[in-house]
TrEMBL record:
UniProt-recorded name of the protein: Armadillo repeat-containing protein 2
ARM repeat residue intervals: 629-671
PROSITE patterns: ARM_REPEAT (PS50176)
Compositional bias annotation for Polar residues: 94-107
PANTHER family (alphabetical): ARMADILLO REPEAT CONTAINING 2, ARMADILLO REPEAT-CONTAINING PROTEIN 2
GO biological process: cilium organization
Region feature Disordered, mapped onto this chain: 67-111
Gene source species: Bemisia tabaci (Sweetpotato whitefly)
């Protein structure tokens, strides 16, 4: 009898949003002081004082439920392209009620200019008297202009003729003067933006936006002026402040301050348009250093990029500017430093956390770039090197689960040794369902498209044991959830234990699709040493008992996904087992299926009939099937309009007809009539089904002394007519095209049918 089950890997659709999970953390808890931002010790306390406390449910596969290193909490629904994003910015430890944007002097003055340096400037300081006192000698703009003019007048006989440069400076003075005269408490957004725009153009015209511009005093003057609008500025005003600051090539702690401004603006999706109409994205990306040099700035920068990449237009714009390649470079630098044993700041890991969160958003729309840019390869290295960082692991697991559906990405994951890494992470974080479910899903995808991966996972020490242990653990958790009536609530808030079990079972299902692996998995082929053989046998039997325990608690109507996954696993395992250790469980499995055979759930019945097709090779199971009323259900299945269910039911009937008791019972039923009807109406171009029908008819009449009397005078002519019609090779494969189709699968299936049908026809004639 041909195999009833065509071994194909079980496929799962991409993980889709199910229900609301927790808020998406955006920025980790770090430590800061006013200017150097070396720590954010009071961050959680500051969050409580944050006025904007809106929250949006995140994508269920976006964030862990809790973070060990608290964060600037930010969230935005991934299901919507626009909408509010909530976040908080750190506040000063000394003044919790005010936001901190520390501004230090931009560039050190060159040696050729007089020293007009000002102390580091903090626009959020409530009392600016000390600052004003320090710079009172250089705040007079006329005096400042005179110094510049005198320096530029050398060699020109110190004439007092006004040059274009002086006119430009006066124009700049006028802009700054008008800005200073504006109401800083109730900001006129339109007027302020007009002046900022004029200021930006004037700075660009004057060459002050050049990287090599020496006028650091003038830059400082501009920065002091525009930063006075920070405290009460609207989002467009704040973004333009950041725009001008970036254009002036600020450095050091000022970059962190600018990144904080941009982060604050990006928290609202309505501000996305502001980034599309200027060169701020170019300036922003250009300003970023590395997580090793300036991790504080990168924490906020990648927090902002994580928001911006939620907008498809902005994402494409960022990709065009090479942001993915930049992130790959940053990952590579950190990975290399870690491998070389270089001591890194704690904030570097926080920056990488934000970076990997941004990559997760990029992966949604640009998965095809992750191999060519080396992004996935570096993520694999990061996951291996930082496998102890649970937050980082959760981020990378999300990204990998998205990428693993692509065959090229699955190949990279296999090449970079992710299978043993996944098993290691299962052991490290067995209780983190968000990590386990994504890694299991990714692992199932890898196994689906690679036979090498199936062998490798089977050979991986303790891999099968770890998977079984996880399934058992989540089974117990699921039973407790069900008893406590909290399953529905869990499904709304995250990954239920049942979801995790589905993905874990799928891993074993896909591993068992490899014939050599499947036969060794059930110990049908024994090439182990004695100790290993008994361990493998015990693990396999334990797995069967776990599957049956779950199946006993679930119904197809309410728990279709887990029921189908378990039935598929039972099918794959019983397919290989004939006389091995697993055969001892056949009756238990058949008994476990007894309640399902009466189901009207077609998908479930397809899998049930596959398993029974394997089990009924055993005489005891055939008898049990008849005892539990299986024959009546078989009659119902043979009337199904579903081709797959009909094929499986016919194969099951072939097995039943191997027993004389079954043949006697079938003579009293109308199943033979159904077979003849199927042969007449359903088998044209369905050669696999036609083959099984002929096998069933052959088995039915195998011990009959008179085959015509066995089928009866009404059925025999119909069978003969149908067989002669289906055996007409010229009708289905004309001679003029036959040469081109003999290698086609359809013709080969017909050829297999023709061999059996011809024998049956000869016996009937």
């Amino acid at each position: 009898m041909p195999s009833l089950f065509q071994k194909t890997p079980t496929s799962l659709p991409n993980i889709t949003p199910r229900t609301k999970l927790c808020k998406l953390p955006a920025i980790r808890k770090t430590h800061h002081c006013k200017q150097l931002f070396s720590s954010l010790d009071n961050l959680l306390e500051e969050l409580e004082n944050q006025k904007d406390d809106s929250s949006i449910p995140s994508h269920p596969y976006c964030a862990p439920k809790c973070r060990s290193r608290g964060s600037l909490t930010s969230s935005r629904s991934l299901d919507a392209e626009t909408g509010p994003r909530s976040c908080t910015l750190p506040r000063s430890a000394g003044n919790p009620s005010s936001e901190i944007l520390s501004i230090s002097h931009p560039d050190n003055p060159t040696a050729m200019e007089p020293d007009y340096s000002a102390e580091d400037f903090d626009p959020a300081m409530p009392n600016q008297e000390c600052f004003i006192k320090r710079i009172q000698d250089v705040t007079d703009l006329a005096s400042f202009d005179n110094c510049i003019n005198e320096a530029r007048a050398l060699g020109s006989n110190q004439t007092s003729i006004t040059s274009p440069r002086v006119d430009s400076l006066l124009s700049l003075e006028k802009i700054l003067s008008e800005l200073k005269s504006l109401d800083h408490e109730n900001i006129d957004e339109i007027k302020t933006l007009e002046l900022f725009s004029a200021l930006y153009l004037r700075l660009k015209e004057e060459g002050l936006t050049s990287r090599y511009c020496p006028h650091s005093k003038l830059k400082s003057k501009v920065l002091r002026n525009i930063y006075s609008f920070v405290e009460n500025g609207t989002d467009p005003v704040l973004l333009e402040i950041a725009h001008i600051s970036l254009a002036l090539k600020v450095k050091g702690p000022n970059v962190s301050s600018v990144c904080k401004l941009i982060f604050k603006v990006t928290r609202s999706a309505k501000n996305d348009e502001l980034f599309l109409h200027s060169d701020i994205l170019d300036l922003f990306i250009e300003s970023l250093t590395t997580p090793l040099e300036d991790p504080e700035a990168l924490i906020y920068a990648y927090g902002a990029l994580k928001f911006l990449t939620m907008n498809p237009t902005l994402l494409q714009s960022l990709l065009d500017r090479g942001v993915l390649q930049l992130m790959v470079l940053h990952l590579k630098l950190v990975n290399t430093a870690h491998e070389d044993g270089i001591q890194m700041q704690e904030q570097t890991s926080h920056a990488i956390f934000q970076l990997t969160g941004t990559l997760r958003h990029v992966a949604d729309a640009a998965a095809h770039l992750f191999v060519s840019t080396g992004a996935l390869q570096e993520l694999c290295v990061t996951l291996r090197l930082f496998s102890g960082d649970i937050d980082l692991v959760a981020n990378i697991a999300r990204t990998i689960s998205i990428l693993s559906v692509r065959k090229d990405c699955a190949s990279v994951l296999l090449e970079y040794g992710m299978l043993p890494t996944f098993i290691e992470l299962f052991n490290k974080f067995p209780g983190r369902s968000d990590i386990v479910i994504r890694l299991a899903y990714s692992l199932g995808n890898i196994l689906e498209c690679s036979s090498v991966a199936r062998f490798q996972l089977f050979e991986e020490p303790n891999a099968f044991k770890v998977l079984i242990g996880l399934i058992a653990s989540y089974m117990q958790r699921d039973f407790k959830e069900t008893q406590a009536n909290i399953l529905r609530e869990n499904k709304q808030n995250g990954d239920s234990s049942q979801d995790v079990m589905v993905k874990l079972v799928r891993v074993i299902v896909n591993m068992a699709t490899e014939p050599d692996v499947g036969s060794r998995l059930v110990c049908e082929v024994n090439d182990f040493d004695e100790a290993t053989y008994y361990d493998r046998k015990d693990e396999c039997l334990e797995f069967i008992h776990i599957l049956l325990a779950i199946l006993n608690q679930k119904s197809p109507s309410e728990n279709e996904e887990i029921v189908v996954a378990i039935l598929t696993a039972l099918n794959n395992l019983t397919f290989y087992s004939i006389d091995g250790p697993l055969s001892k469980t056949y009756l238990d499995i058949a008994q476990g299926l007894s309640s399902l055979i009466r189901s009207n759930h077609v998908r479930c019945l397809i899998e049930v009939t596959r398993v029974l097709g394997n089990l009924t090779r055993c005489h005891h199971v055939r008898q049990l099937f008849l005892d539990i009323g299986g024959l009546a259900e078989l009659t119902r299945w043979l009337s199904s309009t579903n081709d797959e269910l009909l094929y499986n039911a016919t194969g099951l009937l072939v097995n039943l007809l191997a027993s004389q008791e079954s043949r006697l019972l079938l003579k009293e039923s109308d199943n033979i009539d159904k077979l003849v009807l199927i042969l007449e109406r359903r088998c044209e171009n369905n050669w696999n089904l036609a083959t099984l029908i002929c096998q069933a008819l052959w088995n039915f009449a195998s011990d009959a002394s008179d085959i015509h009397s066995a089928f009866g005078p009404d059925k025999t002519p119909r069978i003969l007519s149908a067989l002669m019609y289906l055996l007409d090779e010229d009708k289905f494969f004309p001679s003029d095209v036959r040469e081109g189709v003999v290698q086609m699968e359809d013709y080969q299936n017909w050829d297999c049918f023709a061999e059996i049908a011809a024998n049956l026809l000869e016996k009937l004639e």
